Amino acid sequence: MYADQFGRCAICGGVNDIDRRLSVDHNHDTGEVRGLLCNRCNRAIGLLGDSIDILESAISYLSTGRKKKR
């Protein structure tokens, strides 16, 4: 999995510091492994309760008032 993700986080594409490994992320209901995440992304989705609805709401919130790129 590490090689398939080129040693990068499955969400942001970042890497951890040398002393920190990527976290193995899994579905808490099924136990199925989803991928490897950096500490920041792993904590973020955990703090959002792995909720797609809350994540979509956060995306909507962050998008409000945002100027369109030209």
Question: What features would you describe in this structure?
Answer:
This protein has one domain: His-Me finger endonucleases (His-Me finger endonuclease fold, 3-Layer(aba) Sandwich), CATH 3.40.1800. It is built from two helices and two strands, in the order E-E-H-H. It has helices spanning 39-47, 52-63; strands at residues 23-26, 33-37. The chain has a two-stranded antiparallel ribbon. The chain is of the alpha+beta class and 70 residues long. It is 30% helix and 13% strand. The termini are far apart.
How does the overall form come out from the CA principal axes?
A: globular
What's the mean pLDDT score? 89
Oligomer: single chain
Q: Please, how many helices? A: 2
Find the CATH superfamily. His-Me finger endonucleases
Q: How is the CATH topology named?
A: His-Me finger endonuclease fold
Q: What is the CATH architecture descriptor?
A: 3-Layer(aba) Sandwich
Give the number of DSSP strands. Answer: 2
Radius of gyration: 14 Å
Order of helices and strands: EEHH
- Assign the structural class, choosing from mainly alpha, mainly beta, alpha/beta, alpha+beta, or little secondary structure: alpha+beta
Reading off the top of the CATH hierarchy, the class is best stated as Alpha Beta
Number of domains as seen in the coordinates = 1
Low-confidence stretches: none
Distance between the termini: 37 Å
Largest sheet: 2 strands, antiparallel
Helix content: 25-40%
- Spatially, the strands of the biggest sheet line up as 1-2
**Residue share in β-strands:** 5-15%
